[in-house]
UniProtKB/TrEMBL annotation:
It comes from Candidatus Uhrbacteria bacterium CG_4_9_14_3_um_filter_36_7. CDD domains: TSPO_MBR (cd15904). InterPro entries: TspO/MBR-related_sf, TspO_MBR. Its main location: membrane. The lineage of its organism: Bacteria, Candidatus Uhriibacteriota. It is found in: Membrane. It holds the Pfam family TspO_MBR. Keywords: Membrane, Transmembrane, Transmembrane helix. This is TspO protein. GO terms for biological process: tetrapyrrole metabolic process. It is a multi-pass membrane protein. Belongs to the TspO/BZRP family. GO terms for cellular component: membrane. The chain crosses the membrane at residues 45-67, 79-99, 105-124, 131-152.
Length: 155
């Protein structure tokens, strides 16, 4: 039962962060975002929901692997890094979609990328599989940073 509880909480945390971010995203996706000039590599809008849902599940499972680790290694840095990158992930949606600020969001996403990298490094010291589960996330956010910059420049 204890492992099941840890798994559910671990999966729930990123989904909650995503839910908060989507609160600021929904309205802008309907009226503001469609009229922006975007790079030709920008995926269709429908792809973002499934991708982010998958990434949040991977993040949650990675957190679970770290949480259930019984090696005795300190997890304080790993939890802190994870929490910081979750907050920054949410703030990106607020800045980009809520405030309609691609420039501000671009600056913020640089910090998000660094926080994800710190999380991967901290997780790697505790659970290598947990760290590897975050590779799709950092890859997607790197691509998102490129798209964010393109939107900033083109608009």
């Amino acid at each position: 039962m204890k492992k099941t509880f840890k798994l559910l909480i671990s999966l729930l945390i990123p989904q909650l962060a995503g839910g908060i971010g989507s609160f600021f995203t929904v309205g802008s996706v309907k009226d503001w975002y469609p009229v922006l000039v975007k790079h030709s590599l920008n995926p269709p809008a429908w792809i973002f929901g499934p991708v982010w849902t998958t990434l949040f599940i991977l993040m949650g499972y990675a957190l679970y692997l770290v949480w259930k680790d019984n090696s005795g290694k300190s997890k304080r840095l790993a939890y802190s890094a994870f929490g910081i990158q979750m907050v920054l992930n949410t703030f990106w949606s607020i800045i980009f979609f809520g405030l309609h600020s691609p420039g501000g969001a671009f600056i913020e996403i640089i910090f998000l990328l660094l926080a994800i990298l710190a999380t991967i490094i901290a997780f790697y010291k505790i659970s290598k599989p947990a760290a590897w589960l975050l590779v799709p996330y950092i890859t997607w956010v790197s691509f998102a940073m490129y798209l964010n910059y393109s939107i900033y420049v083109l608009n």
